[in-house]
Every structure is written in C-alpha cells, then in structure tokens.
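Data deposition worksheet. Section B asks for the primary sequence of the deposited chain exactly as it was used as input, without tags or linkers unless they were present during the calculation. Section C holds the resulting structure in token form. Section D is free text for depositor observations; keep each observation to a single sentence. Incomplete worksheets are returned to the depositor.
Section A, Depositor: J.P.
Section B:
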Amino acid sequence: MERKDYVYLAGPMEDLSEEEMKGWRMELREGLLTGWHQDPIQVLDPTRRVTFHDQLGDYLQDTTRSMNVCKRIFKQDMQDIANSRVVVADIRRKMGKGTGTACEIMFAHMKNKIIILYSDPDDPIHPFLESMATEKHYELQDIIKAVRSYY
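Section C:
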C-alpha cells in the first residue's frame, strides 16, 4: 500500500449497529464512484475489518488479549490514515461516542492530511476539531464534491 491516494472514513463504531456504522460510509463510497470519469477514488473503511468485539470473542475479561486486540486495531487504523490523502470524519453527535474519531483526526492533522468533517448543522463542534479541519459539511453530496476536488 505505497500510494497515498486513499480516502479514510473515520467515525464512531462503538455501541453502534452495523447500519449506523456502515450506512453513511457505503453511501459516500458509492457517491464517489457515480458519475466520476477519472480513476476510481479508493476508500479505506475501518468497518471492513472484523469488529473489536468480534475479535475479542470469549476473551473480553482477558486484559492481555483485549489490550493486544486494541493495539492491533489502533495500528491498522493509523496505517490506513497514513496511506490516505483525505480523511472524512463523521463527528455527528447523534452517532454517539467519538473518542476514537477525535484521536484519528488528531493523527491525520499531525500527518498533514486533508480533513473533511461530516457534522449536523445544530451540533456544537469542539474548537480543536474545527481548527484541525480543512472543511466541514452537513450533507454527503457536499462531502463527495469536496473529496473529488482534491483528486
């Protein structure tokens, strides 16, 4: 994975249904492909991997195993971000916890990635997130246009 032309899709996953985790990501991926006449924009979606809880299985109480799983997932996500040009981050409050997403945004910022926030208009956004973002949008169609503008 030498190229750095990917789009990484950051967003909450903990305590969300599969539809909540994957719905907006699938819609964004499909939108990036529809009507685009250049090479496809490749998407790195962390939901493509087995979820944290599935990887833990019966070992939820095994702190050594759970720590190793956490570290593995963290490293995989950081590698995906490092291999991306653009990070789209779902920071909508209705999606729940965003601790991991905030960490991903900070890492992307430190790597000088283009960061596009996906927010709801009424959501108060933390000034740190606002400061690290390249752009902020409220509709997936606007995010698709923004992502394409960087390719």
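Section D:
The chain has a mean pLDDT of 87.
The chain has six helices and five strands.
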